[in-house]
């Protein structure tokens, strides 16, 4: 789909790759990969993987709309806005433009689909990620911080809850 100068290709995840993606990205949480692929399978978005040759280097989940958090939907009409989540670049590939390449591809696809904006939530203490998004033209929405929480199941089947204080950032496409 997108060819990056550092030989990074952005491709939509395939079902046959999921076990491999688990080993490369989330060996302790296989469901992360499967759940993201499920979003794509249901037609609700695309699970975008950055490949360096045959090595997966990073990922983002692009949803056609979101987020569903009431703290955001009270102020923002998410219907025409795509949404980025689950951003990650493996340590050895960081600061090489991997996340930038995925986000730019996500923006291109979103625009092609008719989305007017693209948004994301970022932890208020996640300095690296905030810097990345600001560099790419994302702006804080100006409505303040809020707490999100999500449930996860680990490889032993234990269910846990994580929480994070985040802000919403967006960009006009
Ligand atoms: C945030 C993250 C996805 C960035 O991925 P990446 O592939 O290294 O990002 P890029 O190489 O495209 O970085 C582009 C720009 O973002 C900013 N940036 C990225 N990492 C940074 C860091 N560690 N410190 C400061 N700025 C950083 C810089 O402006 C950088 O440009 P530069 O390298 O020319 O200075 C990666 O650090 C990561 O996986 N972090 C852990 C998970 C996470 O926080 N995900 C985001 C959740 S919202």
Major sheet: 9 strands, mixed
- Mind telling me which CATH architecture this is? 3-Layer(aba) Sandwich
**Regions with little confidence, pLDDT below 50 for 5+ residues:** none
In CATH terms, what is the fold-level topology? Aminopeptidase
The overall number of domains is 1
Which distinct ligands sit in these coordinates?
coenzyme A
Shape: globular
| Rg, nearest Å | 16 Å
Structural class: alpha+beta
CATH superfamily: Gcn5-related N-acetyltransferase (GNAT)
Q: Report the end-to-end length measured between terminal Cα atoms.
A: 19 Å
Pfam family, one: Acetyltransf_1
Keywords: Acyltransferase, Transferase
Domain N-acetyltransferase: 8-173
Protein name: Putative acetyltransferase
Structure characterization notes:
- There is one protein chain.
- The chain has 173 residues and is α+β, with helices and mostly antiparallel strands.
- It has one domain: Aminopeptidase, CATH 3.40.630.
- The chain contains five helices and nine strands.
- Strands 1, 2, 3, 4, 5, 6, 7, 8 and 9 form a nine-stranded mixed β-sheet that branches.
- Strand 3 and strand 4 form a beta hairpin.
- Helix 1 (18-25) crosses helix 2 (30-41).
- It binds coenzyme A (COA).
- Residues 58, 87-89, 94-100, 122, 126, 128-129, 131-132, 135 line the site of coenzyme A (COA).
- Residues 58, 87-89, 94-100, 122, 126, 128-129, 131-132, 135 line the site of coenzyme A.
- Keywords: Acyltransferase, Transferase.
- Residues 8-173 form the N-acetyltransferase domain.
- It comes from Lederbergia lenta (Bacillus lentus).
- Pfam families: Acetyltransf_1 (PF00583).
């Amino acid at each position: 789909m997108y060819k990056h100068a550092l030989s990074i290709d952005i491709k939509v995840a395939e079902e046959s790759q999921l076990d491999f993606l688990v080993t490369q990205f989330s060996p302790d949480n296989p469901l992360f990969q499967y759940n993201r692929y499920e979003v794509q399978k249901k037609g609700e978005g695309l699970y975008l993987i950055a490949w360096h040759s045959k090595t997966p280097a990073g990922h983002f989940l692009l949803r056609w709309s979101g987020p569903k958090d009431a703290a955001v939907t009270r102020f923002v009409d998410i219907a025409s806005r795509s949404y980025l989540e689950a951003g990650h670049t493996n340590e050895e590939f960081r600061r090489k433009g991997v996340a930038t390449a995925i986000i730019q591809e996500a923006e291109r696809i979103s625009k092609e689909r008719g989305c007017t904006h693209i948004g994301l939530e970022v932890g208020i203490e996640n300095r690296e990620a905030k810097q990345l998004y600001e560099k790419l033209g994302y702006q804080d929405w100006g409505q303040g911080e809020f707490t999100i929480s999500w449930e996860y199941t680990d490889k032993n089947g234990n269910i846990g809850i994580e929480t994070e204080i985040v802000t919403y950032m967006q960009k006009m496409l």
